[in-house]
What we know:
Structural class: mainly alpha
Shape: rod-shaped
Amino acid sequence: MLNKLKALFADESGAVTVDWVLITAAVVGLGGLMYSHFHEPLRHIDEQTGQALANIEIDPIILD
């Protein structure tokens, strides 16, 4: 029984899959943290930019 457990823990055939799952989970987790941290400040900047662009008057282009 002990030899089977040693063989199970020594087997690395699924290690790459586990690595990809952990890396993907870390990237998704960091993305969620960044979204929750920057959501309101970026929303405020977006509203200010939209208001500034809405107040700009553009002269029409006249082609001769």
